[in-house]
Amino acid sequence: MKTKAAVLWGMHEKWQVEDVELDPPNEGEVLVKLTASGLCHSDEHLVTGDIPMPLPVVGGHEGAGIVAGVGANVSDVAEGDSVVLSFLPSCGRCSYCARGMTNLCDLGAFLINGPQLDGTYRFHARGQGVGQMCLLGTFSEYTVVPSASVVKVDDGTSLDKAALVGCGVTTGYGSAVRTAEVKAGETVVVMGIGGIGINAVQGARIAGARNIIAIDPVEFKREKAMEFGATHTAASVEEAGPIVGLLTRGQMADAFIITTDVAEGDYVGPALDLVAKRGKVVITAVGHPEQTQMSGSVWMLTMMEKQIRGSLFGSSNPRHDIPRMLELYNTGQLKLDELITREYALEDVNQGYEDMRNGHNIRGLIRY
Ligand SMILES: [Zn+2]
Ligand SMILES: [Zn+2]
Known about the structure:
This protein is of the alpha/beta class. 25% of the residues lie in helices and 26% in strands.
């Protein structure tokens, strides 16, 4: 079939919205008619090269829609089902899945290769195969994805809002609730209030944090953070330090979550300085692959048992946590509507990313 998709043909180029050819689903694959796709920062990383992926590629990895067809041996979803696409597939069988760490599923190795799990392409344009971001490619009206990436949700779910739980919401919420293990009464610092950080703020709120200090240089984002549950804001880490000290009688924070656009190694030291004994520094933002140096006192790691933890998809299990996010939305505890700053047609995807770069958006959303 033919479908319209946003394709990246070269680094530092614009997304090209064009008609592409889409093959039917193979064995173990699902054809999805997308309702909406979030504009996540990670697709911008494809443009800048911070995430090295072979091009061309159909972008987008935060989507939801309706199943429009299934390949052989797909039994967990059927045509007409409402689904959220998880940016991480989970096979349910590998060592990590077996231990309840499906965010670390071995299928993650295929995430930024381009083709589907069997090594062949579903999308074709200009006489060649076109890869799919995170095996998904949600910047397309239709896509074919592994059934391991598909999470069935209740019929009647608002699939435009639900798109956001396929990556950003679950990642941010999980960074606080699962990776940082925030508990009632704790003090949490979130550095970088974009689509991930804002959800780390609301995760900390839902977990019962006493103080939530949101750091961002952009005033609009600091205001947004307060709407989502931050108790204090600061424009910089330097500014946040005395606030955390005062709020905790000098004990400092239980968790410091780094959700900046890109993670830099020299963010770690100042973050370690702001956490208490046994405090956790969580790194959710993606660092440059070639960066191998971090700042921070090794002495403090030992003497104060300070911890540095990486967080992928907020240490979440997609098949459990994606429906859980929607349950929290349905009961009014998790804000999704308020996350969407602006909506775009697929044709305006480049404008959407320009708005993100200029700090105008918490989350932009493409609606099909
Ligand atoms: Zn994402
Ligand atoms: Zn697995």
